[in-house]
Amino acid sequence: MCECDEGWFGEACQFQEECSLSSKKSTELCKNQQGVVCSNRGTCHCGSCLCDNNDDKGFVTGRFCECDDSECLDEDTGEVCGGHGQCYCGNCYCAAGWHGDKCDYQCDISPWESKRKCTSPDGKICSNRGTCVCGECTCYDVDPSGDWGDIHGDTCECDERNCHAMYDRYTDYFCSGHGQCNCGVCDCMTGWTGKKCEHPLSCSLSLESSLKKCRGRSNLPCNGRGQCLCGQCICHPPGDSRIHGKNCECDDRQCEDMEGQICGGHGYCSCGRCICENGWFGKLCQFPRSCDMSDAQSKELCETDDGAVCSGKGSCHCGQCICSPQEWWVSGEHCECDDRECDKHDGLICTGNGICSCGSCECWEGWTGNACEIWVGDEY
């Protein structure tokens, strides 16, 4: 146990009794990515979260009390990670030779033999699409149907996602309905061709000419938001008028925030871009041009813990950070986030079906998955 100097308290003497921060500034520093103070599992003190641990077991941890280390407890023995590993933010990191979510079993083969059995034909462990435990691959199952999964094979070498049509990735509509999927490769029926059997041989255009017409100015056919059929784009999901244009180049969802408000209520959307009313600016018309606070007040709200204004990656306007437009990936309340960390699918960040928020994808209605790549909306 730490014996704290005068004026400090906490298990590691990390909290200062006197606080120089304003109440508003302190509260802002205690909010997690979802804007919840200390994840509703602690109290905020001078910009730091004091986590609730009334049972003195210290299971609630993390900068924002976001971790629950009780998830590491072995239900049978009550030990943390079965006594064979360490717990970090609710996940067990096992000692050598021990495996499982709670580090509760050992392998009966050597690590070398285990690695050999899990190595796929391309030399990767479980094809980089699974985890190797005791010589057996557990493939990442991203199939929402709950059946046998899109990724399979002894070394996860088969990825059925490659057979899904671009506009309808996560149904059983393999190979555009015109072929058979064999270990992630489409065998097309007579009369159809293309990687996903999407091109009819009856079309007067060649496959390359068809795709070229559908690309327009994009690198992806239909901007990754639709199906190319004989040089014509069918935007997806069908019936959503927010996706439109000859090459599905307009995505009016980009004008909405996660609550569905268009251009912050201060403008209108034109082909996926906000046209702001007089007196407002920003990607979502979220910044007022006039300001009723002093420069000092504004700067205080824009400063991070280390005193940098907007993390040194943006400018401060009326207490809000405007992140540098030259570095498109910089985001966050204080420009502290890197949106390049957001997952991609089909070459698009968040698959074009959500917003990258501080390095994580927040999906629009009807989509889910780490990269918003899974359609869970109504059938179409």
TrEMBL record:
Keywords: Disulfide bond, EGF-like domain, Glycoprotein, Repeat, Secreted, Signal. Residues 2-13 form the EGF-like domain. The keyword Magnesium does not apply. Its main location: secreted. GO terms for biological process: cell adhesion mediated by integrin; cell migration; cell-cell adhesion; cell-matrix adhesion; integrin-mediated signaling pathway. GO terms for molecular function: integrin binding. This is Integrin beta-like protein 1. One of its GO terms (cellular component) is extracellular region. The keyword Secreted applies. It is found in: Secreted.
